Amino acid sequence: MSRRTALLLSSAFFLFTASMVHADETAEKWMKYFDGDWVRESKLWTTEEGWTEEKATWTGELAAGGLAHISRGKGIWGEFMTILAIEGHSGQFFEYGSAANGYRWRINFTEVSDDTLSGKLLGATGEGEISIKKTGKDSYEAKWEFKRKDGSEMKGTAKNTRK
Q1: pTM of the predicted model, to two decimals?
Q2: Residue 159 CA neighbour count, 13 Å, CB half
Q3: Dist CA 43 CA 154 (whole Å)
Q4: CA distance 126 to 152
Q5: Which end of the chain is less crowded, N or C, counting CB atoms within 10 A of the terminal residue's CB?
Q6: What's the angle, vertex CA 98, arms to CA 29 and CA 34, rounded to 5?
Q7: CA-CA-CA-CA torsion for 96, 127, 101, 53, nearest 10 degrees?
Q8: For residue range 30-46, what is the model confidence (pLDDT) as tens digits?
Q9: What domains are there in the chain, each with its CATH number?
C-alpha cells in the first residue's frame, strides 16, 4: 500500500470516527434533555376513528451511566415504557417502546442534530416516519405518519412540556 493510499484511508477513518463520536455526544444530550416529568398533548388521526385527542404523562431518567434513557408513562395505550440508547455495534441511536395494550415500536433515528431527531418508525403492524423538534428549553413537538400493513393509516402531532 502506498503512503498516499494509507494517508487517505486513515483520514477517511478519522472523519468517520469523528462523525460517530459527534452523533453519540448529540444523542447523549437528547437523552439528558428528556429527563424529568412531562405532559404530552396529542392529536391522533386513524383511518378507523378519525381525529382524537389524548393527554399523557411520563417521566424519564438517565440510566447506565448516562448511556441510556428509560421513560414510563400512562396514556391511551395504558402504561407504556420506552428505552433510548445507542447500539454498541452500529452506533444507531434508537428508541424501543412497549405499551400495556400490546403495541410495540422501534424508532431508528437517522437524523440526530442539536434541535431535531427524525427517523424510521417500525411497529408490529407497519412502518412510518417520525420527527421531533425542540421548541424550547422545556418543550418539544413530535410529528409522525404511520402506514399499517392492512393499508390503514395513523398520523399525529404531540406537544410535550416539562412539568
Answers
A1: 0.82
A2: 7
A3: 11
A4: 9
A5: N
A6: 20
A7: 100
A8: 999 999 999 999 999 88
A9: 3-162 (2.40.128.20)
